[in-house]
Amino acid sequence: MSIRLSLNPVHCLQAAAVVGVLAGMTLPAHADNWRGWNVHPQGYPNSVALDSFVKEVTENTDGRIKAKIFHNGVLGDQPDAIEQTRSGALNFANFNMGPMGPIVPETDVLSLPFLFKDIDAMHKVMDGEIGQRFADALEKKNLVALSWFDSGARSVYNTKRPINEPEDMQGLKVRVMNNDLYVEMIDALGGNATPMAYGEVYQSLKTGVLDGAENNFPSYESSGHDEIAKYYSETEHLILPECLCIAKRSWDKLSDQDQEIVRQAAVDAATLQRKLWAEGSKKSREDVLAAGAKINEVDKPAFQAKMEPIYAAFVKKHPDLEPLLNDIRNAQ
Ligand code: GTR
């Protein structure tokens, strides 16, 4: 078979020009441009840790990965970002395990109220074999959890009154993260739960669409919720870990060497985050107090008793997760 080439002089000249230009310049090595999601503002413990992750990954891979982190939730709210990371449209993120439940049912165990006796117990569990079980469950949904961040204990706050007993929650419209378990939790206390994106809470508190929400001290402060909802009542009903997660699609493309670099950077970021968290949450508590927040302790056993039926309902719905729940309880 003969192939006839028709040579157009103009095309020949253009091709020659392109070859000439390419020959004269050094082509950059192929770089993976990674985009990461973070809901918190710059300077927040998680944000500082993510900045350090980005730096370490970019430097230690000699630019084979060029990572960039987008703070402040500018790339969307958490449920959207989870989907985008699962599909590989985003490459990495810091996710709270709360809104992960609808996608990775195993993580719902972590959203059971008063599960961990304290933050140290949570670290002990998540840094060990049980944490690996959660990472395996996340990986089946295309998220590679490389390390666990702290997010303290979450407590309720509102614009109306101090909460001492569960009865004080009666009728309060309280924002929760996107997870039915939290709706059950607030309803069990007599409040009205409203699932809502984090970024919408400030305005809703301001306009009275919400009376309150629940969060840890650093988020209560950095979101500005403390300016509006002055009553912070230390229910400490949730101690939720957060992950530094990589999109499985991005992870699988890496060489063994680069996987090791990324894993180490994630572990280093978690070490830094936990240190900054410990300092930052104390400081946030002092800051909000100085700015006029009214903090009170609550009758915790009464809250625990009200929420206890959530466990029975959960085990009934997910009998397969009962061993995991029991292992977490026994490990503390
Ligand atoms: C913060 C947490 C965020 C987000 C937020 C919320 O404490 O770090 O990931 O879950 O709470 O309430 O939505």
UniProtKB/TrEMBL annotation:
GO terms for biological process: transmembrane transport. It comes from the Bacteria. Gene3D superfamilies: Bacterial extracellular solute-binding protein, family 7 (3.40.190.170). Residues 1-31 form the signal peptide. InterPro entries: DctP_fam (IPR018389), TRAP_DctP (IPR004682), TRAP_DctP_sf (IPR038404). The keyword Signal applies. One of its GO terms (cellular component) is outer membrane-bounded periplasmic space. Pfam families: DctP. One of its GO terms (molecular function) is carbohydrate binding. This is Solute-binding protein Csal_2479. Keywords: Signal.
